[in-house]
Amino acid sequence: MDSKDLAQYIEATDSISQPWLLLQLRLQKLKERKATMSPEAYTTAIAELCEDLMNLGQWWVGREKEVFGTQDHFNDRI
């Protein structure tokens, strides 16, 4: 899924208020621009994304079913 598809998904599902999806969009856009960036600029952008992700904290706690689905994927692998 490219950044355009992801942006359309976020818009179609009214998910603009879900910061983890916005971070995924930023990461996808960064991946698409990587070839045109200097290694230093890319590293700086990745570091900024990582910091923003860490600042989200454990946003999924208490929302596991909503965020990750209802299927227990761990048991599928055992």
Compact description:
The protein is mainly α and 78 residues long. The protein contains 5 helices and no strands.
Describe this protein's structure.
- With 78 residues, the chain is mainly alpha-helical.
- Helices cover 68% and strands 0% of the residues.
- The chain has helices spanning 3-12, 19-33, 39-56, 64-68, 73-77.
- Helix 1 (3-12) runs antiparallel to helix 2 and helix 2 (19-33) runs antiparallel to helix 3 (39-56).
Beta content: under 5%
- Total count of domains: 1
Q: What is the C-alpha radius of gyration, as a whole number of Å?
A: 15 Å
Number of helices: 5
Shape: flat
Specify the structural class. Answer: mainly alpha
Helix share, percent: 55-70%
Strand elements, count: 0
Determine the mean pLDDT.
87
**Biggest beta-sheet profile:** none
The secondary-structure element order is: HHHHH
Distance between the termini: 29 Å
Counting copies of identical and different chains, the oligomeric state is single chain
Runs in which pLDDT lies below 50 for 5 or more consecutive residues are: none
